[in-house]
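Continuing the batch. This is chain 6 of the set; chains 1 through 5 are on the previous pages. Same settings as before, nothing changed between runs. Recording input and output for traceability.
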Amino acid sequence: MKRIPALHFGLLGLAIVAGACGSGASDTTPTTTTAVQPTTTLRPTTTTQVHATATVQVWFLDSNHAITGEEPLYRSVDRTVKPPAVAAGALDALFAGPTAAERTTGLTLILSGATGYSNLHIDNGIAYVRLDGGCSSGGSTMTIAGEIMPILRQFASVNYVKIYAPDGTTETPTGSRDSIPVCLEP
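Output for chain 6:
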């Protein structure tokens, strides 16, 4: 027995329906059509999106402690970031600043003239990050370095942090030790 493709049955069915609807005749005899089932069945596809997140710590200056000199000067808060770029997510959260509720508890963001960061990468246990915008301690020992250092050190792959000025300089560019640019010195 020869199989007729389902497409032919579908076209035949359309021709019958079109003929019945468009004949213009005054025949009142009801017309019955039978739907033809396709010979192949499409399987439904589902897309599962993973909405994984990670919780990181972000440090801000505790202005109440800064006034009194009480330790700790910097206090951490939880932020949720999307992997795999959790270090970048943590720095993005830093530059977003504390929430309104956190500000009422005395947390504040010290930018030291920076408007953002770039060139973040981790290599052989050292995190490298460059400040964008400006860079100035304003004569203070409390700078953005006090926020960035603990943020990046929380990651197991980071032992040291090297912060660079917007012009690409830092005090100790080589070696296994922390470094900040001269512009963040008091």
